[in-house]
Amino acid sequence: MIEKQTIRNYLTASANKEINVADDDSLLASRLIDSLTFAELVMFLESHYKVSFDTDDLTPDNFDTLNAIARLLERKGVS
User: Fold this and answer.
1) Model pLDDT for residues 24-64, shown as the tens digit of each residue
2) Measured between alpha carbons, how far is residue 71 from residues 36, 56, 57 in Å?
3) For the domain that residue 18 is a member of, what is the CATH number?
4) Which of 5, 17, 25, 62 holds its CA 20 to 30 A away from the CA of 68?
5) Judging by beta carbons within 10 Å of its beta carbon (0-12, 13-18, 19+), is residue 72 exposed, middle or buried?
6) Can you give the pTM of this predicted structure?
7) How would residue 17 be classed by pLDDT, with cut points 50, 70 and 90?
8) Could you list the residue range(s) of the whole structural domain that residue 62 is in?
């Protein structure tokens, strides 16, 4: 199971402020992720979890919530 708090902590550090986001809250609608933050998040996830994302993986549906990101990582073999 993916530790979503790790991703939440990364987003908090990236925003330079404490964020309160539930696992199913939209990161895109809440504007916690913009195009630059998205690219940085992808690089963090690839580095931290030792995975590589294909272009097909980089969709809003896969990065809209913490649960969606966790599911993507699980599909990539991260446990």
Assistant:
1) 999 999 988 989 999 999 999 999 999 999 999 999 999 99
2) 22, 15, 11
3) 1.10.1200.10
4) 17
5) buried
6) 0.92
7) confident
8) 4-75
Q: How confident is the model at residue 1 (pLDDT cuts 50, 70, 90)?
A: confident
Among candidates 77, 52, 73, which has minimal Cα distance to 62?
Answer: 73
The predicted pLDDT at position 58 comes to: 97
Longest dimension (CA), the chain: 31
**CA–CA distance, 58 with 34 (Å, rounded to integer):** 13
Name the one residue in this structure whose structure tokens are 């550090």: 13
Q: Which of 64, 67, 51, 73 is nearest to 4 (CA)?
A: 67
Residues 64 and 76: their CA atoms lie apart, in Å, by: 17
Q: Please tell me the distance from the alpha carbon of residue 28 to that of residue 3, in angstroms, as a whole number.
A: 20
Based on the structure, what is the number of domains in the chain?
1
